[in-house]
Amino acid sequence: MAKSERAKALEAKQKADAKALKELKKSSTNPSDWGRWRQLVETYKVTAEHDKALPWLMIGAFVVPFALVLTLGLIFAGGSILSVIMWIVLALSVGFLGAMAVFALRARAAVYKRFEGQAGSGEVALGMLPKKWTSEPVIAFTREQDVIHRTIGPTGLILIGEGEPNRLRPLLTKERKRHEQVAYGVDVRVIMMGDKEGQVPLDQLASHIKKLPKTLSDDKIAEVKKRLTALGTQRTRMPIPKGPMSTKGARASMRGR
């Protein structure tokens, strides 16, 4: 009997803990605690604040393909009710995908616009890379808040410099040599962020990295990542501007996965 009471008490405690955790996540302002639907809603709200055309573009992206597919369905349905229903479902699906595609593109543009020109903004672009890439933001920086980020993936080991080029070059050279010593024969690429000739803008950084020639296999990436743990890079994180916008809800679409 006592055992049964203890089991009931434990079950009640587990239910209470689960309820408390649910309430905590519900009231949390941390996007990582939110569900996928809330992430999408919050991302839409913040994006719409900066992009007044977003609702109309999404409506157009839904209505146009919906109407086209539905028109085709009415032409080829042949009078069958079941066929008409299937075409309606298909039209709704295509319209929804069109609206979500526009939303993902505009949300990504809003994120870049929001952080462009701020110290450490390269972290935003690195966050758009697929899971095969492992990024380490702000591995080194200057007093003037010029920073160096690092990412490793199929296109290699890459250092990204962000800030004033003349101040960054000595630091990039130093970090490149340190990484080459640890990486043992793996080429270390260097990218300079910016809008000048030879530089890569923030909103093009992720796509630029993905388009580079693939030089590392999955096994080699894992091997180099282990070696990098021994590298004594600066771990003091420079304060990076944070905002309320969450990109997690639409991130898969943004990455093109």
UniProtKB/TrEMBL annotation:
Residues 236-257 are annotated as: Disordered. It comes from the Bacteria. The chain crosses the membrane at residues 54-78, 84-105. Keywords: Membrane, Transmembrane, Transmembrane helix. InterPro entries: DUF4191. It holds the Pfam family DUF4191. This is DUF4191 domain-containing protein. The lineage of its organism: Bacteria, Bacillati, Actinomycetota, Actinomycetes, Propionibacteriales.
